[in-house]
Structures are given as C-alpha cells and as structure tokens.
Amino acid sequence: MKLLVNMLIGLGILKEDLDYHLVRASMVIIFLFFGYSKWFNYEAQALIPLIEHGPLIFWMYPVFGIRGAGRFLGVSEWLFCALLLSGFWNKKLGILGAIGSCFSFVATTTVIPFLPNAWEKSAGGFPAMTDNVAFLMKDLVLLAASVYLLRQDLIRLNSPAAGLPSWRT
C-alpha cells in the first residue's frame, strides 16, 4: 500500500488545487458535449419522457415545443459551460456558472420520482432502475460537483488574497 501511495504522490495527486481544476474542467466538458447534443432531433426525442415529467421543466414544451426546448437547454448548457470555463480566471463568473449548473442538476434529479415505470418490475421494482432513471442518477454526482465549485469559488472570491472586502460580518 505504501508503494501505491508513494506512486500517487509522485504523479502529483497532492498538487494544490488539482481536484478543483479537474472538477471545473470536467464540468466544462460535460456542458459542452451535452449542450451540443441538444441541437439534434435524436436528443430532443430522447428527452420527451424526462421533460414531460419534470416538476421544474415541464413548462418547456408548451412554451418552446419539442425542438425549441432542446435548443433552449443547449443554449443554457453552453452558457453554463462558458461561465464555468471563465471561472478559471474570474471567480464571479465561475459563481454564476456554478449556480446555473446547480439549478440544471436540481431540475433533472427532481424528475426521478415522477417518471412512470422508473423502477424495473421484472427485477422487483425499486431499487432496480430503468434506463431513464439510470441516466439521471449521474446528475446527483454532477450536482455535488456543482456545489463544490460554487463553494470553492465563493471561498476564493472571499479570501483576503482576492483583494476584496470580506462578505462575512
């Protein structure tokens, strides 16, 4: 075990802020690719059962239509991508991106309890997930990553090294 630990340390796993930069870069990539897919009909069709049953996003179809809702989501995801990317240099923009990211993943995870046939009956129901629930479960981790980035950006913006007055009283 000591050899493994020393190898990991030698690879730079303890480098300052490595986790923060990896999480930020990962979120940028995720929003870039997921936002891109929203522009195509295959994705718009795949989202129908999710959006129809989402307590925070159900309104998109009556307002935008099926393809318009996909494009709205794509633009939103690209906006969050750009803000999160900007967060490498500007913590205020990073905070806005993390807030948008948090909202995005709260909106998608709240779909899970409302999906019909979410739990596979042939496997005894809950906790045996169907494909749509399995797809959405990743959003719990992405929500945690979004909260982490939001917290880190708030800490960094509020630190004396940032040259800004403290928000704490």
**Average pLDDT over all residues:** 89
The value of Rg in angstroms is: 19 Å
How many strand units? 0
Secondary-structure-derived class: mainly alpha
Could you give a short account of the major beta sheet? none
End-to-end Cα distance, whole Å, is 46 Å
Q: Number of DSSP helices?
A: 6
List the secondary-structure elements in sequence, H or E.
HHHHHH
**Share of helix, binned:** 55-70%
Strand content: under 5%
Poorly predicted segments: none
Summarize the structure in words.
- With 169 residues, this protein is an all-alpha fold.
- It has 6 helices and no strands.
- Helix 3 (41-52) packs across helix 4 and helix 5 (91-109) runs antiparallel to helix 6 (131-158).
- The longest helix has 28 residues, at 131-158.
- The chain is globular and about 50 Å long.
- The model has no long low-confidence stretch (mean pLDDT 89).
Provide tags for this entry.
6 helices; 169 residues; mainly alpha
Give a topology summary.
Blueprint: H1 2-10, H2 18-37, H3 41-52, H4 60-86, H5 91-109, H6 131-158
Q: What's this entry about, in short?
A:
The chain is mostly helical and 169 residues long. 68% of the residues lie in helices and 0% in strands. Helix 2 runs antiparallel to helix 4 and helix 5 packs antiparallel against helix 6.
